[in-house]
Automatic annotation (TrEMBL):
Enzyme's top EC category: hydrolase
Name of the protein this chain belongs to: Beta-xylanase
Shown residues in whole-protein numbering: 37 to 338 of 464
Protein's UniProt keywords contain Ion transport: no
Enzyme Commission number(s) of this protein: 3.2.1.8
UniProt keyword annotations, A-Z: Carbohydrate metabolism, Glycosidase, Hydrolase, Polysaccharide degradation, Signal, Xylan degradation
């Protein structure tokens, strides 16, 4: 293939990017988006603060802009994200206990129902584990509603949109030896053994000097896949955009049959949440970087 999406498709995979609705009027941006990618993730537009700014009042305009842009061009959509401790609207931040549990489940149900049939995979729950060596859940208002909040969210999402793959998504879960990785693995194994409806695990894969790519990444992907879930690289960016590291990530995904797609967290360096790290595949002026060539070659050779 001559583009990221077409080359990934030849390997039975997708290649996606995060998209911001307000950039869809930038033709330099949409030219690259429409040419290269066949999966999109709304960068912020499906988060709780965007979709339910007031309790019970749902707002889907900018999310629908992205979904319609993508689906009318044959691209699929990863939904991001239904339940998260961050980017909660003020009304939710101030809730707790059974009222919060009910509001969270209603949010999952309403949003997944609204987009039913249009979402390839949902990040049902995002970033629910703590950093560091504890292997514990992250403390949050959602966690304080009871340890079963994650499985409750997955069951609500399945009921609302039975056709979407349901993913758990997190960062710093790339290194197989890290406590956080092992803790997520243990949860997924438990969910599979008890029939909790989980289909996939998203590895954000924000690699930087503090949490670099490590060669056991492939072991991480294959170990999770062996539990009977798809694995997806969901928010890839690499500080400095080393071509060799991008190539390794692609090769690792291609080596794992159930690694069914890669998403980069933005198109041009100027689109990145960490733009000063120049971590993406295109320069701020839209030129292909050496990392782009490495990714394309790896997709075509693998
Ligand atoms: O839209 C408002 C704008 O109205 C306001 O004037 C401006 C002032 O700060 O803020 C704008 O919202 C910002 C939003 O991005 C849209 O640009 C928020 O402040 C800012 O916090 C938000 O950052 C996003 C961040 O998640 C927090 O939700 C980043 O764009 C987005 O790339 C980042 O993505 C996350 C994933 O969802 C989860 N994994 C980690 C990843 C990187 O942090």
């Amino acid at each position: 293939g001559t583009t990221l999406g077409a080359s990934a498709a030849e390997k039975g995979r997708y290649f996606g990017t995060a998209v911001a609705a307000f950039k869809l009027s930038d033709s330099a941006y949409t030219t690259i988006l429409n040419r290269e990618f066949n999966m999109v993730t709304p960068e912020n537009e499906m988060k709780i603060d965007a979709t339910e700014p007031q309790q019970g009042q749902f707002s889907y305009g900018s999310a629908e802009q992205i979904v319609n842009h993508a689906r009318s061009r044959g691209m699929n959509v990863r939904g991001h994200t239904l339940a998260w401790h961050s980017q909660q609207p003020g009304w939710m931040q101030n809730m707790s206990g059974s009222a919060l549990r009910q509001a969270m489940l209603n949010h999952v149900t309403q949003v997944a129902t609204h987009f039913r049939g249009q979402i390839y995979a949902w990040d049902v729950v995002n970033e629910a584990f703590a950093d560091g060596s504890s292997g514990a859940r992250r403390d949050s208002n959602l966690q304080r509603t009871g340890n079963d909040w994650i499985e409750a969210a997955f069951r609500a999402a399945r009921a609302a949109d039975p056709g979407a793959k349901l993913c758990y998504n997190d960062y710093n879960t790339d290194n197989w030896t890290h406590a956080k990785t092992q803790a997520v693995y243990t949860m997924v194994r438990d969910f599979k053994s008890r029939g909790v409806p989980i289909d996939c695990v998203g590895f954000q894969s924000h690699f930087n000097n503090d949490s670099p790519y490590v060669s056991n990444y492939r072991t991480t992907l294959s170990s999770f896949a062996a539990l009977g879930v798809d694995v997806q690289i969901t928010e890839l960016d690499i500080q400095g955009a080393s071509a060799a590291t991008y190539r390794s990530v692609v090769e690792d995904c291609l080596a794992v049959a159930r690694c069914n797609g890669i998403t980069v967290w933005g198109i041009r360096d100027s689109d990145s949440w960490r733009s000063s790290q120049t971590p993406l595949l295109f320069t701020s002026s839209g030129a292909k970087k050496p990392a782009y060539d490495a990714v394309l070659a790896a997709l075509n050779n693998g």
